[in-house]
Design goal:
Blueprint: H1 12-27, H2 33-40, H3 44-49, E1 56-59, H4 64-70, E2 77-82, E3 87-92, E4 97-100, E5 103-107, E6 112-115, E7 120-129, E8 136-144, E9 149-156, H5 164-176, H6 182-185
Antiparallel strand pairs: 1-7, 2-3, 2-9, 4-5, 5-6, 7-8, 8-9
Length: about 190
């Protein structure tokens, strides 16, 4: 059975972390969430959950494959994969999907990814200033069971703010794949 979305205001530890994240971003809005997580000694996913002003929306991880397949309609995107030792960035298009022996494959002419879907634990739609130049980025960020970034798909990465078309497509996908929030039915604010 799916867990209800985490409400920061209902968890003292998350409320305290949210204050630290808000304070850090108040000092430097452009820093990466990976670096902020390292500074705070928490998994990156917890920083994402605590982003201020509705900057992150948790999506339904149970629909991860449908979401990834929808990226084919986005054209060129900026994909970031990080491990404990390196970060790889690629610009390409999603497509040529297949599943083989526990991997979900993306093998277009410009991207070659093999996703271990059993390791995926959460996904978010994120709006945040770029650490490169401060322009707004919009992205879909997938996290593993340890709370580390599995991969991130940026519709914009820097150099310009999202066009109306990109912002609209991002909002449409974020709404379509949003994780059910029982508080919304009760008229309570979402996290």
């Amino acid at each position: 059975m799916a867990q209800p979305p985490t409400r920061i205001d209902q968890h003292p530890a998350l409320s305290e972390l949210a204050e630290l994240v808000h304070e850090a971003l108040g000092q430097d809005r452009h820093q990466t969430t990976l670096m902020l997580a390292s500074q705070l000694g928490v998994p990156e996913v917890e920083v994402i959950r605590c982003l201020p002003d509705g900057a992150s929306t948790e999506l339904d991880i149970g629909r991860w494959e449908e979401l990834v397949r929808s990226f084919e309609t986005l054209g060129k995107v900026h994909v970031i994969l990080s491990s404990g030792a390196a970060t790889l960035e690629a610009v390409g298009e999603f497509g040529r999907f297949s599943s083989t022996e526990g991997f979900f494959n993306v093998q277009s002419q410009s991207l070659d990814m093999h996703i271990r879907s059993k390791e995926l634990a959460s996904v978010f739609a994120v709006r945040k200033p770029s650490h490169v130049d401060g322009h707004e980025t919009v992205s879909f960020q997938f996290y593993d069971r340890r709370g580390a970034a599995a991969f991130k798909v940026f519709l914009t990465f820097g150099g310009r703010d999202p066009s109306a078309e990109i912002a609209g497509r991002f909002a449409q996908l974020a709404g379509q794949f949003r994780k059910d929030d029982p508080s919304a039915a009760q008229g309570l604010p979402a996290d």
